[in-house]
Amino acid sequence: MMLNEIYGQKAHSLIPAGAHTYSRTDEVFPENAPRVIERTSGVYCWDVDGNKFLDYGMACRSVTVGYGYERIADAAVAQIRNGNTATKASKVEVDAAEALVNLMPWVDMVKFAKNGSTVTTAAVKLARAYTGRKYIVRCKEHSFFSYDDWFIGDTVMDCGIPQEIKSLTLDFHYNDLDSVRQIFEDYKGQVACLIMVPTESEEPKNNFLQEVGKLCKEYGVVYILDEMITGFRWDLQGACQYYGVEPDLVTYGKGMANGFSVTALGGKREIMELGGLSPGKERVFLISTTHGAEMSGMGAFLETIKVYQELQVTSHLWSMGKKLCCGLMDIAKEYKLQDYFYITGAECSPNLVICGQDQSPSFPYRTVFLQEMLREGILMPYISLAYEHGEFEIEMTLDAARKAMKVYLDSLNGNVDQFIMGNIIQPVFRKYN
């Protein structure tokens, strides 16, 4: 028995779902994907059997420079040698807070944490405390905000969450300003906040982000932008800078420390200071985590900013993304598949759409294409580019895609089930296993 199989079985016997993130579980990958990764470097990973893959998942999009990038790793290690933690606030966490506030014009104060769910939920709590209201409005089309009840209760995977909590989250549709206005009217004076990602697979139209901000101001709603993915990818100052929008509160994570566990909640002082020690104010228990400002992560974050500035990382992500997108679409045209295989979203973070015979997105046909990419050594659950994806890696990917596209075309012309090695890729959010 191969080590992949041994460790895969161990993982499922010891860890619910076999991994600590649902987007890392076996069910969201084809059968021939590696079960367990042993090491990573640059933009490559090796499984426990020593098989090498060019990686486009990049650790759930959290690595934007490269795995183990030496300068950033060394900065983290230097802080580990400083003790990595302390009984009081550390110098490096103050330096990191100052760096983020100086970098983002819409951030007056910041709280660091270890995962995105912590900071998005803290943003919601602050908004409720600031407004004295209870309802949360979130974008229906955006895939993930938090593992906490306010969001998960608004998905099909809502087992274990009381109806009373589910009823407090309301949905609007992206690029549909009327849907926002309607909720604000229907629940006038009751909505604490609106939260969305600046963009996911669809670009904002007709100044949608700015117009939502105006509505939030008109109705007294706290405007929260979740930049967990877009921050440090669209621009060093995130999608807020790229699209020219200013939120009341904003959350960051993923690429801000090149894979080290650092997230942040930032925003206007008048809201953020509710979690502070202002005399005479009712206390809001905001974020209080032992390891939230761990020195190693803070050191990695500070060095990541320097690397971004010196190497123009976001420009590279846009450039390589455009090259990859154009190449993939050229191949699709060669096979006359441009109506079945196409790309949406921004080129720095493209969304790959793979359709079935009815030209609708299809998990079976997506499985076929990604399975064939894996045969060529390309791990591509989605496309998350990093600085170390260079010309060589893009050409390698396009060579593999040309072969995979041929098999995908054959599956469209035949019985798709005959082309699938094992399981069909499954979405994370579904009612039953």
What does this structure look like?
With 433 residues, the protein is an alpha/beta fold. It has 15 helices and 13 strands. The strands form three sheets. Strands 4-10-9-8-7-5-6 form a seven-stranded mixed β-sheet, with helices on both faces. Strands 1-2-3-13 form a four-stranded mixed β-sheet. The two termini are 27 Å apart.
Secondary-structure element string: HEEEHHHEHEHHEHEHEHEEHHHEEHEH
**What general form does the structure show?**
globular
Determine the fraction of residues in helical runs and give it as a percent range: 25-40%
**CA radius of gyration:** 22 Å
Question: Distance between termini?
Answer: 27 Å
Distinct helical segment count: 15
Write out the strand line-up for the largest beta sheet, numbering strands in chain order. Answer: 4-10-9-8-7-5-6
Main structural class: alpha/beta
Give the mean pLDDT.
Answer: 97
Tell me the major beta sheet. Answer: 7 strands, mixed
The low-confidence runs, each spanning 5 or more residues with pLDDT under 50, are: none
What proportion strand? 5-15%
